[in-house]
Design goal:
243 residues, 37% helix, 9% strand
Length: 243
């Protein structure tokens, strides 16, 4: 690359990226950015103790699992008709994909953008998505495989479904880098804007804990905090809490 092109690229990369709309679903009953800020400002935690009697999952008898988690409530609620999804397909659709549809629509509305106005635009979609608990549940229940099950639980489909529903023509990418997935999605969205691959981007991250398998595995590996506190980069760190 010659010096003039290199200088042009650096100037382009330094162009600020404006965040104009937000939406969220977080543990602790946090369903708006304002509620999230209130949670942070108050010093409260969304981590709670999940008692053995109230756990939804069948834990192995010999497994010693710290009874703490940060979980969303009512993840089964979804307005399928609004997103032109049939009841049969909605049943097979991973709740993670349902949340992406809902919160992306809300983020656009919060930005003052009519989602319908984006049809045909070079808007990009960047989705950080990690777990596949819903697929595991379907396998355990011996549900017969069908078309909606394969597309409804595919991480690759998550970004494409959102892009297709809104009629977008920009990049549609699903990213799995474990705990950093949403951060990498945001990074790639900024890079895409700076590179001129899209003029606007929807960057998101989603993670739902719907089955015990990973929690059990992480507990056996000694990765989970026994006191329900995540104290990263601290001398007192003793593990983390799933959420």
């Amino acid at each position: 690359m010659d010096n003039s092109r290199k200088s042009s690229s650096l100037n382009q990369a330094q162009e600020p990226v404006a965040i104009i709309g937000l939406a969220c679903r977080l543990p602790g009953g946090v369903n708006t950015p304002e509620a999230f800020w209130s949670l942070l400002a108050s010093g409260r935690t969304a981590i709670r103790e999940v008692s053995q009697t109230n756990r939804q999952w069948a834990w192995p008898d010999a497994a010693e699992i710290p009874p703490y988690a940060a979980l969303l409530e009512q993840v089964d609620q979804f307005d399928a008709a609004f997103f032109h999804i049939s009841p049969k397909e909605a049943t097979a659709l991973d709740p993670q994909q349902r949340l992406l549809l809902e919160t992306s629509w809300e983020a656009l509305e919060q930005a003052g953008i009519n989602p319908a106005s984006l049809r045909g635009s070079d808007t990009g979609v960047f989705v950080g998505i990690f777990s596949n608990d819903y697929q595991l549940l379907q396998i355990k229940q011996n549900d017969a495989p069908h078309l909606y099950g394969s597309t409804g639980t595919s991480a690759a489909t998550a970004s494409g479904r959102l892009s297709y529903f809104l009629g977008l023509q920009g990049p549609a990418i699903s990213i799995d880098t474990a705990s950093s997935s949403s951060l990498v999605a945001f990074h790639l969205a900024c890079q895409s804007l700076w590179n001129g691959e899209c003029q606007m981007a929807l960057a998101s991250g989603v993670n739902l804990i719907l089955a015990p398998d990973l929690t059990v595995a992480f507990a056996q590996a000694g990765m989970l905090s026994p006191d329900g506190r995540s104290t990263g980069f601290d001398a007192a760190a003793n593990g983390y809490v799933r959420g």
